[in-house]
Specification:
Length: about 120
């Protein structure tokens, strides 16, 4: 679980609009290797979504199916949280979370081939 959280921290800091808003770093090869479930040298959209779904579950400390700022304060700034909270209710649902991280995947997929390498 610690490995999952560490990679989630990096992925979230590179994502949630940061890739464009703050020119965050690209995902490092070592992080891709941890997400690359089939060891083919790239991270497919499916692998990324599976990993981020697991990350959501790990971040949801009380298991209520939503993230609040206190649960993600170590990995998201208030601005990142607000960007992910699409309906501005102060909570990030699994759907909001996945919508944002998959949007970040699409932005990072420079080759538009459904793979991060």
């Amino acid at each position: 679980m610690q490995k999952t959280l560490l990679v989630a921290v990096f992925v979230l800091s590179a994502g949630t609009g940061l890739a464009t808003a703050q020119q965050g770093p690209a995902i490092h090869e070592g992080h891709l290797n941890q997400i690359d479930a089939n060891n083919d040298g790239g991270v497919s959209q499916g692998e990324y979504q599976s990993f981020m779904t697991e990350s959501f579950t790990s971040l949801d400390q009380n298991g209520d199916g939503v993230l609040v700022e206190g649960e993600v304060a170590k990995v998201l700034t208030p601005e990142q949280f607000a960007t992910t909270d699409a309906n501005t209710d102060g909570r990030v649902s699994r759907n909001e979370f996945l919508r944002q991280v998959m949007s970040d995947f699409a932005t990072a997929d420079k080759g538009q081939d459904g793979q991060l390498k």
